[in-house]
Amino acid sequence: MHENFFHKLKVYYEDTDSGGVVYYANYLKYLERARTEALFSIGFSNKIVKSQFNSLIIVKSCNIEYKKSAYLEDELTVRSFVKSITKTSFFMNQLITKKDETIVEAQVHLVFVNHDGKPVKIPNEIYSKFKPYFCDTIKT
Fold this sequence. Notes:
Layout: E1 5-10, H1 26-41, H2 46-53, E2 56-66, E3 75-85, E4 89-98, E5 101-113, H3 124-130
Antiparallel strand pairs: 1-3, 2-5, 3-4, 4-5
């Protein structure tokens, strides 16, 4: 069984529209923060990926489904796990929940690239640290 990364956050005034509802684009920011914290929790950061491995992790695509709204001062949890992986990229599934209810589901395709934007192999050091978070489906 795979493990999950969890990131908790609170909805602030700046995240909402005049009605106190989270603006749809801000969910993408929440997902990005959770992915950044997941990387940090395994001992890496985007700065380390850039400086030590001469790579960047970019979003190739994002499929997001908004199920329910979040509101001012709601406490949310982003659950993330690696769904599948190739030599140069991986799919991360992410769920945003409020209490025990899923309000957003997203599948994000992330690619390791060099400074010219060309895909590069995921460094073994990162791959091995992510391994416990892989779902059962691993692509070669």
